[in-house]
Amino acid sequence: METIKEEWKEKGFVDEPVPEGLDLKKAIRQLCKEKDAIILAHYYTVGDIQDIADFVGDSLALARKAADTDAKMMVMCGVHFMAETCKLLSPDKTVLCPDLTAGCSLADSCDAADLKKYKEEHPGYQVVSYVNTTAAVKALTDCVVTSGNAEKVMASFPKEAKIIFGPDYNLGNYINSVTGRHMLLWNGGCHVHEKFSVDGIVKLKQEHPHAVVMAHLECKAPVLAIADVKGSTATMLKYAQAHPEVKEFIVATEAGILHEMQRTCPDQTFIPVPPEVSEGGLGCSCNECEYMKKNTLAKIYNALKYGWPSVEIDPAIAREAVKPIQRMLSLS
Fold first, then answer.
1. Rounded to whole angstroms, how far apart are CA atoms 54 and 181?
2. What's the CA gap between 41 and 56, in Å, rounded?
3. Rounded CA gap, 189 and 171, in Å?
């Protein structure tokens, strides 16, 4: 492997020029073949990346793929905690993250030191964490969940179990509301899903009266209250695929999912819900995660070419962090 330059470390990605005229998509697939690598892409990445990926999915599906793959190397096109999850489940494989600065506002809303202190203040409580967390937080967790399996996994806990749920307040609040539980909720959230406009949905519904409203469980309660379909990205995608008679959908989640929805349901229309406040008051038509958009074809190409940035986790943290993921996978 070539020497990792200091300027790469400072930027968090390999910042090398790509040969002029290079067909990046073909070059990436060729490098995958040469290096026995696969590309995993989250639904929220740009369409060009989803098109070249070996597997496109939400966090649970990608975690499972990471555990099952025989490839020696994987490129996790998503955000940093997802690459960590891949490394936890495939410790002997090389896991590349095209841009180490592709963080997550939700994962950042729960610091491991703060969670440790909170646990100490609440003896007798188990911790259930959303998968959108750092490895250090997972190491303090008894079981993780995704938005797709949260209800099913939570059903395995006794009704009277004392539970701290974090970091997504909206998802925890939804679980409490549908299960009758009284979990203690960490006050964290996703900056994308927090910003969806109820007024925007109402306005779109007036313009498209027959449209089905779909919302991610990370959205605020008022948004979920007016949604016809509530769930994970995969839940929404499957619903659209299973209901070809519905011609229009209003979608309240990160706009990247529209690429896969449109690809698999070409005869249906998907309308993104705008954020509450658009920058500069110009009226943005959709809500995007700038961290997911840090993944680019050029960064993927360079990551494969130079074998960096690779994700490493402290072995002591990894030993504990993998346990709640394995528990989730055994339950879901």
1. 39
2. 5
3. 9
Task: Give the DSSP H/E element, type plus range, for residue 108.
Answer: helix 105-108
> Are 296 and 20 contacting, i.e. CB atoms less than 8 angstroms apart?
no
* Sequence-distant (≥ 6) Cβ neighbours of residue 49 within 8 angstroms: 39, 41, 77, 295, 296, 297, 300
Name the strands in the sheet holding 248-252, side by side, starting at the edge strand that comes first in the sequence. 229-231, 212-216, 248-252, 269-272
**Which one, of 26, 28, 51, lies nearest residue 41 by Cα?**
51
Hey, what are 9's tokens? 């470390």
Rounded to 5, what percent of the chain is helix, strand, coil? 45, 15, 40
Q: What CA–CA distance (Å, rounded) separates 177 from 164? A: 15
Closest CA to 131 of 64, 71, 177: 64
Residue carrying structure tokens 């679980």:
175
pTM for this structure?
0.90
Residue 233 tokens read as: 């990205």
Distance between CA atoms of 6 and 215, rounded to whole angstroms?
42
What digits encode the pLDDT tens for the residues 104-154?
A: 988 999 999 999 999 999 999 999 999 999 999 999 999 999 988 999 999
Cα→Cα distances 141→291, 301, 322, Å: 25, 35, 10
